[in-house]
Specification:
- This protein is of the alpha+beta class.
- The protein has three helices and nine strands.
- Strands 1, 2, 3, 4, 5, 6 and 7 form a seven-stranded mixed β-sheet that branches. A two-stranded antiparallel ribbon has the order 8-9.
- The longest helix is centred in the middle third of the chain and has 14 residues.
Length: 141
């Protein structure tokens, strides 16, 4: 066993792609994964994504060391099988972070030049975090 070897990389098969879930709850992570120039741009930002399992219950999507989304239920089984097949290798794919009416969202799959589809129903189950100043929660308007 080698101690200082890098983990291999395996490209995930995500088909035509999908919109990741939990965008409303993960706005901080989506913004933190972008550079300053990407945050200020009005167009989608191309990013490299990695899939990982969280406690074996959910498959999360990681971008630049930030959790930026969850794989929706319709694609979870396929991605989970690919994670098992990859073993210790990192399961990666391309994606884009883009803006919609509710904030930022994550497209997982080949780059798109046109509009992005709506997220599938039931993909967003977490509530957005409460607004805080210095750790103190602000009342909802």
């Amino acid at each position: 066993m080698r101690m200082f070897t890098r983990r291999g990389r395996v490209t995930a098969d995500v088909g035509d792609g999908f919109v990741a879930g939990e965008a409303a709850a993960l706005q901080t992570g989506l913004s933190a994964a972008l550079t300053t120039v990407e945050r200020g741009s009005s167009g989608p930002a191309r990013v490299e994504l990695t899939f990982a399992t969280e406690d074996g219950n959910h498959v999360v999507i990681v971008c630049r060391n930030q959790t930026v989304g969850f794989v929706p239920p319709s694609h979870e089984e396929s991605v989970r099988e690919q994670l098992v097949a990859a073993g210790r290798a990192r399961l990666e794919t391309a994606g884009q972070i883009y803006r919609d009416a509710e904030g930022r969202r994550l497209w997982v799959g080949p780059p798109r030049s046109g509009g992005f589809p709506a997220p599938e129903p039931g993909a967003d189950t977490l509530a957005p975090p409460r607004r805080k100043i210095f750790g103190l929660a602000l009342p909802d308007d």
